[in-house]
Amino acid sequence: MDKITLLGETVEYIKSLKQRLKQLEEINMALSSSGQDAGSFKCEDIKVIPSRTHSPTQDMTQATPEDEDTLKIEVVRNDCSQEDTAIDIFTCLRDLELTVTHASVSTNVYRIHATIKVKMPKQSSNDQFAVCSEIEEALRRCLR
Prior knowledge:
alpha+beta
């Protein structure tokens, strides 16, 4: 993972921590106003110390049953062209004659994360796990 990607993820993590801290400050104020002492802290008291460790997200292609009629497909790819990868994913799903009911595609400089929900194919067997395996294999072939 390159430094720019790591920096972006770190910034997002810090934002989420500050948001959580503000929530805790509100709880603290509510407790203080009710006469209880919850200690005091402020968002400005937090110091951010850069870490040399990170957990890179591995490439992943996974299809799982969500309910009787819906399958959830998740694809994560690093170091790729996001536009080409997104086109390849949806082309593959079209070739498999799957109907997309929902799609969420997030990208940054070198990574794409797609979460897609599709209807269970009508002509397929009732074994959702077998269908999921077929979809995973087809997506892996398309994304090589």
